[in-house]
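Supplementary Text 2. Reproducibility record for the structural model of the 147-residue chain.

All settings were left at their defaults, and a single model was retained for analysis rather than an ensemble. We include the record here because the model underlies the residue-level annotations in Supplementary Table 4.
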Amino acid sequence: REALMKPGGTTDYYRKDGICQAIARSLWYENLTLCVIALNTVWLAFEADWNNQALLVNADELTQSVEHLFAIFYTIDWFVRFTAFEVKRNCLRDSWFVFDTIMLGITIIETWILSFMVGVRMFNDQELMASNSAVVRTARVMKLWRV
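Retained model, structure tokens:
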């Protein structure tokens, strides 16, 4: 249990060579990631007041574009950090990585999977989808805990 909750020092599990570990260990990358999270926070506040659509697929192009950009960044971030681990199962010892994996899953579901499912008409009841989307959007705010 202590290994799972080990604060900091998660780079101990990273490889010693390779570009992904170098990126994941770098201060500029950590600062970039924190800036993107802060921008996402501002965006969430702005979008909550401005966007009246419950589903991303029904939102305007600007909202969809920004949401896709954040999802792409978080996916790349996850990939870089996952690839940096020397032994991949050690990613489970990094509590932030586990948390970010859950948050990325929520982001992918909301941004890409729900949009795809609505787009191909897998669901006829958009009210059901909209209520589930609101729960997912609320859960995204948990990403702020990282800041």
